[in-house]
Amino acid sequence: MEIRHLRHFVAVAEELSFTKAAKRLHIGQPPLSQSIQALEASIGAKLFERTRRWVKLTEAGRLFLQDAYRILELSESAAHNARRAQKGEIGELRLGFNNSMPLSPHFAITINSYRQQFPQVRLHLFAMSTMEQVEALRESRLDLAYIRPPEVEVPGDVELQAVQTHPLAVFLPSSHKLANRKKVRLRELEHEPFITFSKNQGTTLYPQIQRLCRNAGFTPQIAMEVREAPTMMGLVAAGCGITILPQMFSCIGINNVAYSLLGDPGAYTGLVLAYRKGEQSSLLTSFIAIAMANKHIM
């Protein structure tokens, strides 16, 4: 049984005339008769009573007609959904992001724009560290990820597309002697206690700070390792040390915390979109296009 057989059957059932149905379907009457015979043979039931003067449905034909309507409707719906999925208008997109992304105007505007343009796409958001996202991409648990460029080599099956560059800043107690400076060099922080993300958390910031400090000629004194940036800021306010974060964290606005930009070469971090190499999904390419259109929104 083929979909065309069902369409032919419905046309004859509605017209109760092979001649009119053939004209409606733009086919000859002999091929139409053969199609109905093939349908009856495939289902093992007689669907029409017919003479030279009239055609009418059998009881089996009347019952089959209702099912034929449902099958054709489902077939059309399936084809319609397939076309929309091909265009990236429906489906599911799993997006990872790091803990600083919710502070970014770019992120909020991109997510809102995507939801407005593709309201029937189920967008699932997952907060993960950079290396957790890379692993999730490789295991197909994520389709797309907002990450910081890793300090280690990215696996060959992961593609990176640069979106933005964010300066790094040192956050200090507002009473600190360096607090009112527009820029601070890392060398001036050599004897400061550092508050950082946990070493094994999978963020790229910990190894980057280590590298930048080594380039400045010293090894940072790690006083505390924590998992959340607001906790780090709170500890800075309490006078427990200083911390280095992307400048966007200044919007948290915790009392008794000031910040200065780092003036060292390479004292910035990137924001990139990561996805599996060779991925051609319309859902994916649509989101990337919106993100790149908003790349200047900082």
Could you explain how this protein is built, in words?
Strands 3, 4, 5, 6, 7, 10, 11 and 12 form an eight-stranded mixed beta sheet that branches. The two termini are 58 Å apart. The protein contains nine helices and twelve strands. The longest helix has 28 residues, at 59-86. Helix 1 (3-15) crosses helix 2, helix 1 packs across helix 3 (29-43) and helix 1 crosses helix 4 (59-86). It folds into three domains: 3-86, Winged helix-like DNA-binding domain superfamily/Winged helix DNA-binding domain (Arc Repressor Mutant, subunit A, Orthogonal Bundle); 91-164 and 270-293, 3-Layer(aba) Sandwich (D-Maltodextrin-Binding Protein, domain 2), CATH 3.40.190.10; 167-269, Periplasmic binding protein-like II (D-Maltodextrin-Binding Protein, domain 2, 3-Layer(aba) Sandwich), CATH 3.40.190.10. With 298 residues, the chain is α/β, with parallel strands linked by helices.
